[in-house]
Amino acid sequence: MTLALEITGLHAWYGESHILHDMNLSVAKGEVVTLLGRNGAGRTTTLRAIMGLTGRRSGSIKIHGVETITLPTHRIAHFGVGYCPEERAIFSSLSAEENLMLPPTLTAGGMSVAEIYQMFPNLEERRFSQGTRLSGGEQQMLAVARILRTGAKLLLLDEISEGLAPVIVQALGRMISTLKAQGYTIVMVEQNFRFAAPLADRFYVVEHGQVVTQFSAAELSTKMDELNELLGV
Amino acid sequence: MSRKLGYAAVLVGLLIAPFVLYPVLLMKILCFALFACAFNLLIGFTGLLSFGHAAFFGGAAYITGHVLKVWGLPFELGLLVGTAFAAATGWLIGGLAIRRQGIYFTMITLALAQMLFFVFLQAPFTGGEDGLQSIPRGYLLGVIDLRNDLTMYYVVLAIMVATFALIVRIIHSPFGQVLKAVRENEPRATSLGYEVARYKLLAFVLSAALAGLAGSVKAVILGFGTLTDVHWSMSGLVVLMTLVGGMGTLFGPVLGAIIIIALENKLGDVGSWLAQVTEIEWFNTLGESVTMVTGLIFVLCVLAFRRGIIGELAARMR
Amino acid sequence: MEIFGIPLAAFFGQLLLGLVNGSFYAMLSLGLAVIFGLLNVINFAHGALYMMGAFLAWMGLQYFGISYWVMLLLAPLLIALFGMVIERTMLRWLYQLDHLYGLLLTFGITLMLEGVFRSFYGVSGQPFAVPSQLVGATDLGFMMLPIYRAWVVVASLVVCLATWFVIEKTRLGAYLRAGTENPRMVEAFGINVPLMVTLTYGFGVALAAFAGVLAAPVLQVSPLMGSNLIVTIFAVVVIGGMGSILGSIVTGLALGVIEGLTKVFYPELSSTVVFIIMAIVLLVRPAGLFGREK
Fold first, then answer.
1. Cα B156 to the chain's mean position, in Å?
2. Beta bridge partners of B3
3. Residue A130: beta bridge partners?
4. In C148-181, which positions are buried (b, 16+ CB within 10 angstroms) versus exposed (e)?
5. Tell me: the pLDDT tens digits for C41-65?
6. Candidates A76, A83, A93; nearest CB to C181
7. How many pairs of residues across B and C have Cβ atoms under 8 Å apart?
8. How far apart are CA C237 and CA C25, in angstroms?
9. Cα B71 from Cα B49, distance rounded (Å)
10. CA dihedral B47, B49, B55, B60 (to 10 degrees)
11. DSSP code of C131?
């Protein structure tokens, strides 16, 4: 069975800075995988490298079995990848609804606007407001909602719980569970361990631009000491 | 040691040059070399692109020409007045332009210089389209007759060398270091406590004043001041000279000035030669198409040759 | 009848001429702003491409007998293609560099274009006849209204407002607005941003060419008509700020009218009034009247 995402020997640079050193990871279809690690470890860079948003890249990134490392960014999205960046990137010159409708439909099977407004009623209420006038939580929901609309089934989520009220974080957690149940493949970068732990099937720990250890959800309890050391949590 | 020898060799070359080439042409080159060096102070060392330096160059030319011709001031005083005018204008234009950053700064310098162009166009003393003619050479310090081209050349050379030395001194002074810091990373310079706006303005005024000096001298050498000197194409020309020679280098602008002026003079000959070789009649008009060739050089430099000649050489030698 | 000591007909005549010039200011500064927003390049060549639009109309009529009306559509199209070639082959190498290189490149292109046209046509203007359908004037009582000039103002307004509508109210415009703000993110959604950039440059210069065709019967078609205009356009965008489409349109029209009125009351000041206003705006509101500081 083809893996949804397979990264082998990935190096990535921002200009002269060599950030990812021989990054390797794989994600099967329907899996939820979390990248753990300290700030600056290279987790966000990994997601950006998948989308082609870094500088030079070398190695191999296969999405649904197809090599994408040589492709320009706008072609990569068409493999059904949805990227939700750490800074959310809601456009201030667009209304909330324009933000939601902006990403073009990539494949069939995406959520309809009605379904999205059902999942996120706040977004419907505020749909004519300027995108950046929404609260932090609403902007985060908008950022995720707009890629759900496109039919992307491989989601790259960067710190979606960051800076949000616990109630919102819980709602996001429920959303991820729902998506998982519907067969979405999700790669999450998360600092909030408590948020990520119940959702993920597998964990990778990233340090200095490479994977230093990985384990499944089942092994989590045995790995807590090692994690505490690695993450300084 | 080799650098001192290099300077000495160049100096000797400059001293004997008028016996080999036409003094007037040499003086024109010296003026433009100074103009370009003054301009480079702003773009190369402070990182500010002014597209309106013709206002200072040509404006000072008009003012100096007028005070020498109509008010009968002596040569040194005429230069001083011209330079002062350029400095004052620089203070006004710079003060306004600095209120915006980056490309807006450039557009503002261009627009304000254009405004000055229209003022000069309409002002009666400039002679409008005909230009200000018959500017007298006069005497240096009341004794040295400047109507002799050779004498004039050595006077101009002395002025140029002194001013160039001044520019070098400025660049290597603490003030110059701050300018470089502003060019490299303005927010950082601000965070270190420097009042960046003041430094930028001072650099602008200095650059304008020296450009004005170059223009004033040119007016005396050639005996006339024209609208061409205050037109934005002149501003563009000095940008090109600095770009071709190498922005931010010491000698780049000088080399650029030499090349561009030589090109302007020889373009007609090159065109005729090309017309002969390729048998394309149109090349014979090349001499009139200085604009087009200038544009082509601009395009080529920006795309493939941004460091300029001296810049490329310096990079290779590292 | 007189207003402020000037005969009414003359006053309104100059006002209309001011509106005509203002229409050109609006269209050109609009194109310049759209290009700057997405490409971060100040397109110095905007004036030269406006000139080429006028020349294409003239050449179309002179050499091929193609009517003004056809050229009104054809010239912008041809210039758009020409502009897209420039963007693809030259401009795109400069996006990673300091903005000033974009300005210098387009400045060089301006010199080349003007130089070529000058070598063939000199500096004097070629006359261009007003198309027969728009010849003449109607008597409004307080002034004679030359039909062609009214057409210029109306056509410009329609095009400007249509541009505003597309950019602010449609999906395509949303791509442009989003791309101006965060092009990498828009790419990550699967939109071919490099293509959008090329098309936007083409569109911006097409606006300039359209203005050029409109201008042909009013001004004379001369290789220098662009360079006379472009510096004023720079002043217009500094005054208006480049963040707002409507702002550019309003500023362009207003400055055209002010310039026209100045010609009536203080003719000596008319060539510099725009720059004086720019100086005042810089002192009082540096970001421009409608500017959103980038």
1. 14
2. none
3. A95
4. bbbbbbebbbebbeebbeebeeeeebbbbbbbbb
5. 999 999 999 999 999 999 998 899 8
6. A93
7. 123
8. 9
9. 35
10. 20
11. P
DSSP character at residue A32: E
B114 in contact with chain C, both atoms CB, cutoff 8 A: yes
Question: Given the structure tokens 């406590």, which residue do they identify?
Answer: B193
State how far the Cα of C271 lies from the Cα of C277, in Å rounded to an integer: 12
Mean confidence (pLDDT) of chain C = 90
CB A31 within 8 A of CB A53: no
Inter-chain contact B110–C234, Cβ cutoff 8 Å?
Answer: yes
CB contact under 8 A, A77 and C184: no
B178 min Cα distance to partner chain C (Å): 21
Partner-chain residue, chosen from B102, B114, B243, that has the shortest CB–CB distance to C275 = B114
Strand (E) or helix (H) holding C25: helix C8-39
Reduced to 3 states (helix: H, G, I; strand: E, B; else coil), residue C209 is helix
Of residues B111, B282, B303, nearest to C90 (C-beta):
B303
With an 8 Å Cβ cutoff, is C77 touching chain A?
Answer: no
Radius of gyration of chain A (CA): 17
Which of the four pLDDT bands, split at 50, 70 and 90, describes residue C294?
very low
3-state class of C126 per DSSP?
A: strand
Assess whether chains C and B touch, using the rule of 3 or more C-beta pairs within 8 angstroms.
yes
Q: Which of A195, A180, A181, A172 is nearest to A120 (CA)?
A: A172
Backbone φ and ψ for A29, nearest 5 degrees, come out as: -60, 135
For the CA atoms of B173, B175, B180, B181, what is the dihedral angle to 10 degrees? 130
A119 pLDDT band, cuts 50/70/90, is: confident
Q: B132: which DSSP letter?
A: B
Contact B274/C at CB under 8 A: no
Residue from the list C271, C278, C286 with its beta carbon closest to the beta carbon of B118: C271
In one letter, which amino acid is A92? Answer: S
pTM for the whole structure: 0.90
Measured in degrees and rounded to the nearest 5, phi and psi for residue C261 equal -65, -40
Q: Which of C51, C87, C98, C107 to mutate to test the interface with B (most CBs of B within 10 A)?
A: C107
Q: Which pLDDT belongs to residue C114?
A: 92
